[in-house]
């Protein structure tokens, strides 16, 4: 996180007056506290005395500003990343980080001889395996951990320690993640939905005010967060789900008459994506997935024929005659040319499709 962004985050959270812990590490000194560099040539006594006096006055002034609260010293620690866990309230998915996604940061750390921008952590209690948890700086933690495991065992995780409650920690992490393109809209949306329950008592207005967000925009994020996993699995990756195009899909799923068709199409697309991965073929692009899901209700209404499975000989071998609360009626067609195993597979696939539409057998 750049210094300007760090200052911005600190300013937005300044109303909480969040103190930094004073841990046993060397504080970062200001320029006013640094001594005057020695000159290679002897200087007149009077000049030396004036320099000494200026230095002492500078130190006294800096100490006075710290004591008054005008300036706050920040303690930075050099930590073993293995003793630092990731706070689960952060939107970023740690398990989805990789060498590829962190390559630029890894290269920067190597070039600079270590991590230059500190992460923000807080102390944890009652965990024998960890001393701190990361509030802001998940990618830095992952990168340092990766470097320690790949030829840089002495790399240290640089962090500053803050005293934060969960709500303040969430706001700080959210402010950092807003500037990160690799945090998807879906990750943030689900993070907001969880925070709404955990920190704001399901009061969206209060949450919007605390995060300094538009209430309408937050409402759209929460709507996207409600898209079920069974529909999201139609996309090749959760990162493909972006707010603007996904919002109409979330609205469509609120319509009970149309959601069944969307879920059915999502089941079909999920199988197709899996088949493509298995065959080494490219995944279906997110735009095509979204287009198919949005068009599913109209496409379903345009289908006059019953749900059926065609054999390799071009003849139906199994079809759905009806599906209601009393049960499912299937027809197994004679003369399809299919083997018993093929027919059983067809029956199984039909039941899976019915489940995807919400019309399957209730257990």
TrEMBL record:
Concerning CDD domains, the annotation shows: RepB_like_N (cd16405)
Gene Ontology cellular component annotations, sorted alphabetically: chromosome
The biological processes this protein is annotated with in GO are: chromosome segregation
Q: Which GO terms describe its molecular function?
A: DNA binding
Q: Which domain of life is it from?
A: Bacteria
What region holds the ParB-like N-terminal domain?
Answer: 77-178
**Which one Pfam family would you cite for this protein?**
ParB_N
Q: Which residues form a coiled coil?
A: none
* Annotated region (Disordered), positions in chain: 19-48, 300-326
Record's signal peptide: none
Q: Record's family?
A: Belongs to the ParB family.
Q: Would you tell me the protein name for this molecule?
A: ParB/RepB/Spo0J family partition protein
